[in-house]
């Protein structure tokens, strides 16, 4: 029996009022005024000096997010994190579960929706759903073709999982393997802690014609239909054109609150698409890093030098691929990508 419903050590500090009073999984936003109001002792204070006392500075407001386990749970309140690993740890602490049980998170939906994955940024009004480890599965796969038909991503905290399965591919015909499954082992070799491009490389290196043993772990399925944010609340939905402030998570350095720029978001999405075509990986943080290097360059030579002088040189990008990346960055900086996006949205 999977011990995922253990809640005995949940902290009252982390559980929302809705959860404490048993109002189901429906979330309500915290009262911002109440959260940021400093307590005073109400007593009179006698000053013995001639200088007036300096008024106390109001505390900085906490960035607070609501969270649920995707298969159903009370609503938790999460704050005080600066990167994805810290976020996962906060969620684990809230629900008194090992952090290793969390596979990935989606925003504003409890479903295994790969278009709603939590990546490098979170809208300040987004609702977080944590997908927990469920049933492990082992299948034998014969690599009868050069490509298996998988697109792989990872959660930024050590778990790579299947983002997409190409229709009609080898993996599309393998029973029990599904989108959202964590790829845990290949022929007994653990892949926990590997990034998605490392897992993709191992799968690509399997010789054609070989049969290998694939072990995956599916996310726990929901038996509830009435969980999630209240229907009257605002939902972030996606990263493009929300007009809302976002919390950008970084692997190095503190998280920052930024106003989203549609031009930047379109460029990052375009770079992500190029990475997926070139390497079969999907990495918003990597795409953001490439954009930041390109945004400081004035020409393709400066961009190539910036890539060579960064940690990204280990990826071994070809000159042609660097040129394609620069084309997308240059289009974004000149506004051409944004115009194409606006045109497509009209139809």
From TrEMBL:
Pfam families: GIPC1_GH1, GIPC1_GH2, PDZ. Residues 1-61, 224-246 are annotated as: Disordered. CDD domains: GH2_GIPC, PDZ_GIPC. Coiled coil: none annotated. InterPro entries: GH2_GIPC, GIPC1-3_GH1, GIPC1/2/3, PDZ, PDZ_sf. Residues 230-241 have a biased composition (Gly residues). Residues 138-218 form the PDZ domain. SMART domains: PDZ. Residues 30-54 have a biased composition (Polar residues). Belongs to the GIPC family. This is PDZ domain-containing protein. It comes from Littorina saxatilis.
């Amino acid at each position: 029996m999977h011990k995922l419903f253990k809640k005995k050590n949940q902290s009252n500090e982390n559980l929302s009022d809705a959860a404490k009073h048993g109002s189901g999984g429906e979330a309500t936003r915290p009262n911002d005024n109440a959260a940021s109001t400093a307590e005073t002792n109400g007593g009179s204070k006698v000053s013995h000096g001639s200088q007036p006392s300096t008024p106390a500075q109001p505390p900085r407001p906490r960035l607070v997010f609501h969270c649920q386990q995707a298969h159903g749970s009370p609503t938790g309140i999460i704050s005080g994190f600066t990167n994805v690993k810290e976020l996962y740890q906060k969620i684990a602490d809230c629900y008194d579960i090992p952090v290793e049980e969390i596979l990935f998170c989606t925003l504003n939906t409890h479903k295994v929706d790969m278009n709603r994955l939590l990546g490098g940024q979170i809208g300040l009004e987004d609702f977080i759903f944590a997908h927990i480890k469920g049933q492990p599965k082992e299948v034998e796969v014969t690599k009868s073709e050069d490509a298996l038909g998988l697109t792989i991503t990872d959660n930024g905290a050590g778990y790579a999982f299947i983002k997409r399965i190409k229709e009609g591919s080898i993996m599309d015909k393998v029973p029990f393997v599904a989108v959202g499954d964590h790829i845990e082992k290949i022929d007994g070799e653990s892949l926990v802690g590997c990034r998605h491009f490392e897992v993709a490389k191992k799968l690509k290196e399997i010789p054609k014609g070989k049969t290998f043993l694939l072990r995956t772990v599916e996310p726990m399925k929901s038996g509830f239909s009435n969980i999630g944010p209240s229907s009257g609340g605002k939902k972030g939905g996606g990263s493009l054109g929300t007009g809302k402030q976002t919390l950008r998570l970084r692997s190095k350095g503190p998280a920052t609150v930024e106003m989203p720029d549609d031009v930047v978001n379109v460029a990052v999405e375009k770079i992500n698409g190029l990475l997926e075509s070139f390497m079969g990986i999907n990495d918003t943080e990597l795409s953001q890093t490439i954009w930041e290097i390109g945004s400081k360059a004035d020409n393709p030579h400066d961009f190539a030098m910036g890539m060579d002088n960064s940690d990204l040189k280990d990826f071994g990008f070809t000159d042609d691929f660097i040129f394609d990346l620069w084309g997308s960055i240059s289009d974004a900086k000149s506004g051409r990508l944004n115009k194409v996006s606006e045109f497509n949205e009209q139809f």
